[in-house]
Amino acid sequence: MHIKFDFKVILFVLFFFILGFEKLYLLFLIFAIIHELSHMVIGILLGFEPSKIQIMPFGAYINFKIDIKSYNTKILKGTIFSLKKLFVSLAGPIANIIIALIFYNKSNYIIITYINILLAVFNLLPIYPLDGGRAIKQIFVIFLGRRKALKYTNIFSNIVLFILIIISLTFCYLTKSWIILLTLLYLLYIRKKEDELYRLKEKAYKLLEEI
């Protein structure tokens, strides 16, 4: 398995060091990696083979090799592969919720509860490529087919992000929280990349239709 390290993590450590929150950020990063390892464990149990893990500023990301057998087994308008990916998407947030419950009401470790609740809620946002967005995409694939799923997931993600921007900017103005603004900028960055990728895929579909 290939491991890739995003050097922007170092910039984030420096940024939070300047703000005096470097220990909090590192703790956040540790549980974000545990979150991603949960995806990997469930993926392996479902028969997937991890191909790459990427360490990023807000956690990590696991890539799996395509399981041809599951990919070819139909379920409604999708495949068993989509159903398995749905379970894998939910594994990370569920792991964070379990950790939060374990440390709940333990005053010395209350920060662990807060961090894991934050990770679970953030990743369950229905914005692709967050876990919530990935889960919604796989549900769309099962009921609508892959092409429509890509379209509606992209539209839905942009609508939710727009609403979140309005709420976050208002909250940021009232609380003067730079961390919220930083998180929002990160969401905008990853959504921009995914939106560009969607447009490329849509062009590919149209080219195939013309052949």
Can you lay out the helices and strands and say which pair or pack?
Blueprint: E1 2-5, H1 8-19, H2 22-45, E2 49-56, E3 59-65, H3 68-72, E4 74-75, E5 78-79, H4 80-102, H5 110-123, H6 131-144, H7 146-175, H8 178-210
Parallel strand pairs: 1-2
Antiparallel strand pairs: 2-3, 4-5
Helix pairs in contact: 1-2, 2-4, 2-5, 4-5, 4-6, 6-7, 7-8
Folded structure, characterized:
With 211 residues, this protein is mainly alpha-helical. The protein is built from eight helices and five strands, in the order E-H-H-E-E-H-E-E-H-H-H-H-H. A three-stranded mixed β-sheet has the order 1-2-3, covered by helices on one side. The chain has a two-stranded antiparallel sheet with strand order 4-5. Helix 4 runs antiparallel to helix 5 (110-123), helix 4 packs antiparallel against helix 6 and helix 7 (146-175) packs antiparallel against helix 8 (178-210). The termini are far apart.
Task: Explain briefly what this protein structure is.
By secondary structure, the protein is mainly alpha-helical. The chain is built from eight helices and five strands.
Number of strands: 5
Question: What order do the SSEs take from the amino end to the carboxyl end, as H and E?
Answer: EHHEEHEEHHHHH
Please state the oligomeric state of the protein chains shown: single chain
Overall spatial form = globular
Count, helices: 8
Largest sheet: number of strands, sense, barrel closure:
3 strands, mixed
Provide the helix percentage.
over 70%
Q: For the CA atoms, what is the radius of gyration?
A: 18 Å
Q: What is the strand arrangement across the widest sheet?
A: 1-2-3
Structural class: mainly alpha
Whole-Å distance between the termini? Answer: 37 Å
Rounded mean pLDDT score: 85
Low-confidence stretches: none
Strand residue content: 5-15%
